[in-house]
Give the backbone structure.
Amino acid sequence: MTALDLGLIRKTARGTSHGGAAPHSLDRMTDLQIARRTVIFTVDAAGITSLVDAARQDIPGLTTNEIILSVVNHNPDTFWAIARRDRFNIAAPRGEGFLAVLPLNHEGTRRLIDGSLDTKKPELRCIARQCERPAGIYVWCIHAKGSIAAGIPLVLQKFSTPLYQGVSIYSRPVTKEGLRVLEPLGFSPGAHYDGLFAPHLQMLDRSDDLPPLKAVPRDPVTVEVVRSMEGMAQVIAVRGAVYMGEQRCPFEEEFDGNDFSATHLVCHKDGEPVGCLRIRYFAGFAKLERLAVRDEFRGEGLAKRIVGAAIELCRKKGYGVLYAHAQKRYLPFWEARGFALMGNREFVFSDFDYVEVKLEIGGHPQSITLHDDPYVIIRPEGRWDAPGVLEKSVSRGVRPAADLR
Ligand SMILES: CC(C)(COP(=O)(O)OP(=O)(O)OC[C@H]1O[C@@H](n2cnc3c(N)ncnc32)[C@H](O)[C@@H]1OP(=O)(O)O)[C@@H](O)C(=O)NCCC(=O)NCCS
């Protein structure tokens, strides 16, 4: 879906490279005399609708306004209006052309290359959210005629920020002119991703633009949600040593029947399980309990890390109140984490005296809600930022009814 001024784009791109070679970094496209005469900006739904309606006269097969709006709603970094600087008025911003992209996740980019992505009606689950690093960026639609075309490098330059660094850009020019239009910007015929190849697409290969990997010192401590029987065995081992061994807690009190209705966190240091915590959920609050760190690893801040991870997990799940029973001797530990003593109810179980503590936590900006994509909601607990195994299963499609017994 492309309508633009070919000659101007070529001129624009030539100005960016030395000796006329196609540039390979979008950074070099910014200091263009010509681009300085254009501005790019985001517009509201009405602005998008009027730009897309205007484009439809030049691009008859253009997808519907509703689909474009739903994509922009999903990720606002997908639609950029372009205008001549001398006509731009911030009080009444009016675009004269636009460029729309689809920042695709791994699944979306694979499907773009293997041809199964319907770019006229892209599924939102294939499109990365604003905070997510896409696997590939597809130039979805360009409508930029005359000098407005000079805004295209400005838009593409938006995808040079660290979030997008090294992410390749793909396009499918449908017109004959469009076939060559992006070449001066560094695009070349044929596109590849993850072992797949598509001869009909163009690609700006930016895999070389990845920043050199810095030797980041590896954190020897991890705190993870338990996801396997082995992880559960590690929790049982830590609690067996700490509560049953040290505190002489009887087995049936320590393993009280609530372990299969809870989330468990396990802390490793250099791969060795060293601590754990259990979380149980109630309608208005989550309860942190069974915090334990093996004796030989105490005093290193591990309990702080475990409680910090539990608070973060509960925030993302949408909890605003956390509750715990603190052994009285550990009250300062909980208070230092922001928990406050609740009244004066003191009680005793398993040979220790306890008090109730409570922490009110602000909601997480990305907490899971009913409005989230169903594919996000089914991701593994605590790993809601990255695609999960069930999203990968989508490529198998729906099993034909005839195959079912
Ligand atoms: C409580 C426990 C989890 C702390 O583990 P840890 O990894 O040594 O704790 P950290 O190194 O993160 O220390 C956190 C803070 O708690 C304090 N703390 C640790 N043990 C303490 C104790 N016995 N009494 C009072 N404060 C203590 C530390 O001084 C530290 O305070 P700081 O932030 O001022 O330095 C660990 O001692 C344990 O497993 N105890 C037995 C299990 C238990 O009774 N758990 C119930 C908790 S209600």
Notes: The two ends are 44 Å apart (CA to CA). DSSP finds twelve helices and 15 strands in the chain.
